[in-house]
Specification:
The protein is built from six helices and twelve strands. It folds into two domains: 90 residues, PAS domain (Beta-Lactamase), CATH 3.30.450; 122 residues, Heat Shock Protein 90 (2-Layer Sandwich). Strand 11 and strand 12 form a beta hairpin. Helix 4 packs across helix 5. The chain has a five-stranded antiparallel sheet with strand order 2-1-5-4-3, with helices on one face. The chain has a five-stranded mixed sheet with strand order 7-9-10-12-11, covered by helices on one side. Strands 6-8 form a two-stranded antiparallel sheet. The chain is α+β, with helices and mostly antiparallel strands. The protein starts with a helix and ends with a strand. The mean pLDDT is 86.
Length: 231
Amino acid sequence: MDTVFLDKFLEYDYNPFILYSNSGKVIGLNEEAQYLLAKIPKKVIFDLAISYASKNFGFNRIFLDLEFDRFKFFGLSVGYEDENSIGIQLYKNPPIRLKSIENKNIQKSNIYSLIDLVISTNSIKSSANFIKEFDPALPEIKINTNSFIKILDKIYKLFINSTHITTKLYLKVGEFIKHEDKKYKLFMIEVISDKKEIDVNTNIDNLAIKINSIISFKPDRVIMELPLIID
């Protein structure tokens, strides 16, 4: 087996790999791991490796949801064959893939007006203080307005008994998705509440597919990630 080829294969792997010494010093890593450690302290990942290592020499694979900064993972593998070093590889969530942008229900819309409409509807039913923090530079976008309004309405209803509900709208810097060799920027909508626990509505995930969106649920917020389709 060509070990040089294997090393190159690992170097360009989509998933970050890090090899640590027993003291937590990084002694090897691939390109993806460099991006990860530029955002996350190396000790955080080292502690993760120690936590999920098998009790005896060998390898252990675990499937679990992890999130560090903008990095999201669905599992990891940890392995060691002696007491001098330990390796960990984290499995990245697949990137968003556009299902289709040619849809009869897609139309150009003002995203600010759509959000304002849903906020206005929900403010009638809630005593919460609705706060808006919008990036003012987003253009009109192509989106399935009916599905988008339904999703956002369900999200606000999760926080309807809150005192404050903050909505953030902004462009996601440095990340794109591709569809038929064309790249699209991403934008984010965060609905944040002072209510620390929410009941996750699985119907929201099902609706999100129709607008090529990924929905993330946190204890105090819901985050929508969508493609910026303008033509």
